[in-house]
Amino acid sequence: MKVISYGAAKTVTGSAHMLIIDDKKILIDCGLFQGVDEEQSEELGFDPKEVDAVLLTHAHIDHCGRIPMLVKYEFKGKIYCTRPTYELSRLMLLDTAKVMLEHYKSAMKRFQRGTLKDMPVEPLYDEDDVFNALEHFEPTFSYDKVFELLGLKITPKDAGHILGSCFYEIEYKGKKIVFSGDLGNKGKPIVKDFEHPSKADVVYCESTYGDRLHKSFEESKQELKEVLLNTLKHGNVLIPSYALERTQDILYILRELYEEKSLPKCRIFLDSPLAIGVTKVFLRNPEYFKKETYEIFKKEDPFYLPYLTMVRDIEESKQINDIQEGAIIIAGSGMLSGGRILHHIRHHAYREQNAIVFVGYQPRGTLGRRILEKQNPVFVMGEPIHIKAKIYTINGFSSHADQSELTEWITAADPQKICLIHGEEDKMIILKQKLGDRNVYIPSKKEAIDV
Ligand SMILES: [Zn+2]
Ligand SMILES: [Zn+2]
What we know:
The protein folds into 2 domains: 2-212 and 399-450, Ribonuclease Z/Hydroxyacylglutathione hydrolase-like (Metallo-beta-lactamase, Chain A); 217-397, Rossmann fold (3-Layer(aba) Sandwich), CATH 3.40.50.10890. It contains 13 helices and 22 strands. It has helices at 61-64, 67-72, 83-113, 127-134, 217-231, 246-259, 273-284, 291-299, 314-319, 341-348, 367-372, 403-413, 425-434, and strands spanning 2-7, 16-21, 24-28, 53-55, 78-80, 137-138, 147-149, 152-158, 166-172, 175-179, 202-206, 237-240, 267-270, 308-310, 327-331, 355-358, 378-380, 383-385, 390-393, 417-421, 440-441, 448-450. The strands form 4 sheets. A 7-stranded mixed sheet has the order 6-5-4-3-2-1-22, with no helix packed on it. Strands 7-8-9-10-11-20-21 form a 7-stranded mixed sheet, covered by helices on one side. A 6-stranded parallel sheet has the order 14-13-15-12-16-19, sandwiched between helices. Helix 3 runs antiparallel to helix 4 and helix 3 runs antiparallel to helix 7. The mean pLDDT is 96. The structure holds zinc ion (2 copies).
């Protein structure tokens, strides 16, 4: 058995790991590269015709974002995942196709005007490719139910990361290998905590936050409350948020603060058609919620509160620019790589009365990372913006496990070999040290690892 990582090797994006057993090839995830690695998305690095099946862990775009390319280049097999992963991937992939086309068109204009030197690369795929890819999805399995695929025994388990996320235990001739996908941090409001893997020989584990411990959700909720109390009287709070899971977590927390009467009177704008669509998928799949949230769901919508406006229309979105105080604006993209949040940054980031609250990971090369690293001015849509708004990071809202949770999860499998993936190398090295005597390896991209 061999594993070759075609992405998320010494970096966090582009997840794609090929398990090769005899003449069988099974791909675990096929995600887009983002941020500084974006250009690597153009080359898959393998022939999709030779891939027998795909096991998809979850619907984040760094895990599913290149699946339409597989099908475009004649992958004929099936893509296995949970029901929510299928429904969410559908939204995420259609949105990605749309965004890639918009970027291409605007880059083409700049190229024709002579303000862009190189001819832009065509979108990796279009909407039709997404619809073709969706035909290959098999949203059949449920957690902890073993299924057979090409002679392998596969057990998907709850990864506790986002709705429908799983990790895979794969058994072949008495040997077991586990692929973590992304693991969630514990105590999140909507999804359950991750399951532990059973005893395994080899573990491929993500390491996004291998270097640190998160604050608890409750502490993070209090931090958010403080920021809201301190800011809303004279300014607005911008929350760049991933449309999937993070936004629903934030809505859930705002609703809790409202119920507890600790949310100051304000207006909340969810300015993201994608996040609105994702929230609907959540409401269609409540059986994936943790018990407490499911109980709330039986009585009312856990993501709704009276101050909330769902903004679909772009004109309505622009009207938010005129509001000077008392608004919470939640918009994508989470890492400021595009989307409506950019307009809000342009209109609100130069005022010191306002606040920008980061609630998710900001990969290298993204505008979000540049703001966090205190670059000033930053360029937003080609325009220099002097950031005067206060910048906060609330890491406890992360949907990734921290160092102690990763260690706990790996230790449960007690493997002979651990391969760290999906992390920046300096963070992986810190996690490797934490794992002490264990046999830990950090694979490079396209390196064949015997497992
Ligand atoms: Zn993820
Ligand atoms: Zn990921």
